[in-house]
Amino acid sequence: MSTPHNAAEAGKIAKTVLMPGDPLRAKFIAETYLENPVCFNTVRNMFGYTGTYKGKEVSVMGGGMGIPSIGIYSYELYQFYGVENIIRIGSAGGYSDDLKLGDLVIGMGASTNSNFAHQYHLPGTFAPIADFDLLRKAVDTAEKLNVPVKVGNILSSDTFYDDDQDAKLTWKKMGVLAVEMEAAGLYMNAARLGKKALCMLTISDHLFTGEELSAEERQVGFRNMMEVALELA
């Protein structure tokens, strides 16, 4: 079996896939945490690996930047490879005053300025949300590992360089914790296909204070997030 974007053979991808945006981060996770990782995809250099973590089979694969990209990769994993759970692990820019650099944020809901939901011809506005079982397990795991965690609404934005400079303040007023670029598309694919999804984010910078993590601090913060996510497999 293969798709236009994934060369994996049937049965080579686990039921749970961790999905960072950066394919090189997928490679790092596989080589650092998985036992006997095997690369199943290199199409467009979007690396994917399957191995075991504490005896459980788990896969990790890049998802790219933006909803169109993760929309393709997550759909193919769910629809053609029998994947049941996709856990996005990425970085985010903080909005909330309560967030500190390095904090773990879990997207209970994912607001968006994307038109991705238009394809479903819904008679209203769809609210993309995480799977509750994955969400609850992630929160419990973070607490056991003493990793600070905030849960709430995030924004999946189509624009990294937004011409509307007031947009971030407007979203902040609505209680949105942080901004990233993929979760809403992932959550909608999961809803449409009857699958499970969760988005976990490390705050790498804050859009109101101007603070940002150093390269070393990012490494530590991302490791915390990766280890929580791996426990969910």
UniProtKB/TrEMBL annotation:
EC number: 2.4.2.1
GO biological process: purine nucleoside metabolic process; uridine catabolic process
Described function: Catalyzes the reversible phosphorolytic breakdown of the N-glycosidic bond in the beta-(deoxy)ribonucleoside molecules, with the formation of the corresponding free purine bases and pentose-1-phosphate.
CDD domains cross-referenced by the UniProt entry: PNP_EcPNPI-like
Gene that this sequence comes from: deoD
GO cellular component: cytosol
Pfam families in the cross-refs: PNP_UDP_1
Superkingdom, taxonomy of origin: Bacteria
Name under which the protein is recorded: Purine nucleoside phosphorylase DeoD-type
GO function term, MF aspect, one: uridine phosphorylase activity
Family label: Belongs to the PNP/UDP phosphorylase family.
Keyword Transferase recorded: yes
Keywords: Glycosyltransferase, Transferase
